[in-house]
Amino acid sequence: MSELDIQSRPVRLALLGAPNCGKTSLFNALTGGRAKVANYPGVTVEYRKGEFDLGGLSLELLDLPGVYGDCGHSMDERVAIDAVRGKLVNERAPDAILFMMDASHITTHLHNFLQAKNYGLPIILVLNMMDMAARDGIDIDVTQLEAQLGVPVVSCVAVRAAGRAHLLDFLKAWTGEILRGSASYPETETRTLKDLQAKARSITGATVSRIEKVDTFTQKIDKVVLHPVMGLLILLGILFVMFQAVYTWSGPVMGLIEGAIGLLQTGVNAIVPEGWGRSLLSDGIIAGVGSVIIFLPQIIILFAFILLLEASGYMARAAFLVDTLMAKIGLNGRAFIPLLSSFACAIPGIMAARTIEHERDRITTILISPLMTCAARWPVYFLIIGAFIPASKVGLFNLQGLVAFGLVIMGIVFAMIMAFVFKRTLMRGKKSTLLIELPSYKTPVIKDYLRGLWDRAMIFMSRAGRIILPASIIIWVLASYPANAGSIRETFAGKIGAVLEPLLKPIGFNLEIAISLIPGMAAREVVVGALGTIYALGDNLGDNEAGLAATLQSAWSLPTALAFLAWFVFAPQCLSTLAIIRKETNGWKWPLFAFGYLFVLAYIAAGLTYHSALALGL
Amino acid sequence: MKDRFSLYTLPKHQTARITGFELSLGDSETRLREIGFAEGDIVKALHFGLFGRNPMTVSLNGALIALRKSDAQIVQVELI
Predict the structure, then answer these.
(1) Nearest CA in chain B to A214
(2) Contacts of B66 in chain A (CB under 8 A)
(3) Superfamily for B4-79?
(4) I want to staple A45 with a disulfide (CB 3.0 to 4.6 A). Which of A76, A103, A179, A596 is the partner?
């Protein structure tokens, strides 16, 4: 290929390396985080592409999932290896490899680099976090290392501009060589893994000196955080504070948003003449979308915690702490991270299950992921808890926060029970393993952290726009016509809901709930928007400003509200979740199974809750 | 010849040297090697899970690795 042909497209560099070595930080820093593939916070399980300009040269980076060797034991590792080998569908092979390594772990990981020389591409070794390595008393003779490895070695601190400068200078020259076809290719390594390790150890023996420190910063913290009893208590404490904070810190801002929505409705009512147009805007769009947007502050606080736990290095420790329980139910310890991601949304969670090696463990994890309390459930919980559970204090704690915490725990407990059942029936198989590296504690990079938080808020808001808005309009139409309908029951929506009503009546659900559950298939929080629209329309008494919560207080009995909460612990209805299960399992079998078992559990749980509450005289 | 035993039975805060890997079903040895366990490396048992020392963490050349009993039993060590 001539030089001109190659220059017409960017030089493609693959970022390869072990998990937590800073690939994503470097990717974000160089590309400004403008990735072309949807990026969910947490573990990278898909590759991401991003372009940037370097002194007139156009470069493209591939951010790949972390991988230790070249075997590809799990789905995400295979993505990384396939990407480097140019075997990804619709993607050309990279032109060269940037092999990243946490400098502190060079002794442990250098053989992985030797393995990577065999991909047959120009390759350099990027030693990241050189500052932390120096702090931990590790001194690397880079010149000597370069000579022994026979490839360029560049030191780097990916999270700081000054720390990247040297790498960028190097890349400028190197990509030029790659374009001209003059970049050198590494010698291949023909030894076995065992011999490669021996070779790597002899290289590090000659080039790395380590002043053994008695206690590093991370070790001191881990004495407490990884303590079998204290560690679990701390983890429980962190989760508890997280749910308390979601309630207590969000109040004032939510009040402001609620006020703004009320003002908007008043404004619309003043400007737009009485008629269908005003009703569509005020009762359909503003009431529907507004009833979901109001939960933005709580979503942001929730993610502020989750992202902080991830960025600080705590998440892998949480996986270690709960693994002892996971082992008891026969689940893979790595399942913890997908399950925790599912608290944001089951979709990234189900994708993160790709890190699990054994197929049966992966499918078990996928099946129970929807039981984690995803962000779409929060609007429902917030609404019902806010309306029906008093904000009183129980000792030090807020009762509403306690109930939310209880619902989350209920989801987790049932996930564990179901995993236990699945592993002993449908999913019998090999023993699971854990085998993860616990990264050193890090101060999160503020920019990456805020970007993650911003992305999350935007995903929530764009869902409000893409899903809730059209759903609100459809519901408004169905619940407003025929125009002569005297009550909700006589509208189109009422007639559709009436089909489901006999099925849902025994568990305490009324017609309005039946109606809202149908569009709620699109996304769980649509239920809130739908209820907002249905009750705004039905509210002919003119007291529109009281808000949905106040309306529900008078329209629903406490047993119905509690049954509704219990239903949403399981909530089978979410088309996107079912679609991603289909994609990740290559067929309809598992999504249909997931829907079926969740529906049965939801129905039983709501029914039991309703009738127990009635029996207790609530 | 010093006594060899499995990493799983290494007492807390005890340091040992890896001597080899017990034959195992599947590719456990490959995965252990890939993440960094090798003959001659020094390991130290650090933390244990609540039930039955499972999982455990060991420090290995400055890295902290968590592994389950089934994998720890494959790694053979001797006291130094």
Answers:
(1) B62
(2) 316, 319-320, 323, 333, 434-438
(3) Ferrous iron transport protein A (FeoA) (2.30.30.90)
(4) A76
